[in-house]
Design brief:
The chain is of the alpha/beta class. It is built from 11 helices and 11 strands. The chain folds into 3 domains: 61 residues, Winged helix-like DNA-binding domain superfamily/Winged helix DNA-binding domain (Arc Repressor Mutant, subunit A), CATH 1.10.10; 120 residues, 3-Layer(aba) Sandwich (D-Maltodextrin-Binding Protein, domain 2), CATH 3.40.190.10; 94 residues, D-Maltodextrin-Binding Protein, domain 2 (3-Layer(aba) Sandwich), CATH 3.40.190.10. The radius of gyration is 23 Å and the shape is globular. This is LysR family transcriptional regulator.
Length: 298
């Protein structure tokens, strides 16, 4: 079986990313005929139709989308292998990419990063703070080495190696002096304005206490730069022990009685794909920091 050339594979991934040969050619400063020819040669090599050509441009076939996804992962592995080999000879920096939840970024990650940089003087780290679904896509493509996310999120971890990392409790909060500061029933919060966190959305899907609960007014954001000021404007929210401790001087815990609310967080990486030395060390360091962290103190 003939093997495709790297240039042909890169051409397909580029077209998949930009959605058209013209846009891909401009973005990568490649003549459009050269890119079209590379795609055509790739189709002949693998003996499969990978794109559908039409008046509005091209789209990938079903086989083309699956093939491009695998190729993207392979190309990322090639780049990573080169980078790691060069790093071992001192010719480039050691690189690591990780997707984090806000809770992880505000708790165990700073210490873990400090320990990593003490062990790898030339370490360059890239951090993504995206919803777990988006981080999973980046993990699948090889763009991320590791990701941390809520195991109860509306995302499938089945294709990855998943290691339990930590459990973290959550509580309802509001600004001190809020009219709902002493509420005891979830129904009392139904008319409140909400900073809607990912954990609240998970509870509304999976926790039976939330079966008849809905948010009438709310803003959905992961950003604390946006969310925390909302609490000072009378919003309520569901936050982790980590977040509550950080803003404790401004917040009151609302004593709602609806059973324990706990987030279960996992460390993810691609199954069957060897981790780099830096990724292996970061995974071990995160576990050590998670075991030592006080998750239950508010």
């Amino acid at each position: 079986m003939r093997k495709p050339k790297i240039q042909q594979l890169e051409s397909l991934v580029t077209v998949a990313k930009f959605g058209s040969i013209n846009a891909a050619a401009k973005a990568n400063n490649i003549p459009q005929p050269s890119l079209s020819r590379a795609i055509k040669e790739l189709e002949e090599t693998v003996e499969l139709p990978l794109v559908i050509r039409g008046r509005q441009g091209i789209t990938l076939t079903k086989a083309g989308r699956v093939f491009a996804e695998h190729v993207s992962s392979v190309l990322s592995e090639i780049d990573r292998a080169i980078e790691e080999a060069q790093a071992m000879t001192g010719r480039s920096n050691t690189k690591l990419s990780i997707g984090l939840s806000p809770i992880t970024g505000n708790s165990i990650f700073p210490n873990a990063l400090e320990r990593m940089m003490n062990s790898f003087p030339d370490l360059s780290v890239h951090v993504e703070d995206n919803p777990i679904g988006q981080n999973i896509q980046h993990l699948r493509s090889g763009y991320l080495d590791l990701a941390v996310g809520n195991a109860d999120a509306d995302a499938s971890f089945g294709e990855f190696t998943s290691e339990h990392l930590f459990d973290c409790p959550f509580r309802f909060v509001c600004q001190k002096g809020h009219p709902l500061e002493h509420a005891t029933r979830l129904e009392e919060l139904s008319e409140a304005r909400w900073w809607v966190t990912g954990e609240l959305q998970i509870c509304m899907r999976k926790n039976p206490h939330f079966a008849h609960f809905s948010v009438r007014q709310g803003l959905d954001t992961r950003s604390h730069l946006v969310g925390v000021p909302l609490l000072e404007k009378g919003f309520v929210s569901l936050l982790s022990a980590v977040q509550i401790r950080k803003y404790r001087d401004r917040l009151s815990i609302i004593p709602i009685d609806c059973g324990p609310i706990v987030g279960h967080y996992s460390l993810l990486y691609r199954r069957g794909v060897p981790l780099t030395r830096a990724a292996m060390r970061m995974a071990a360091t995160l576990h050590q920091e998670a075991d030592a962290y006080d998750w239950h103190s508010f």
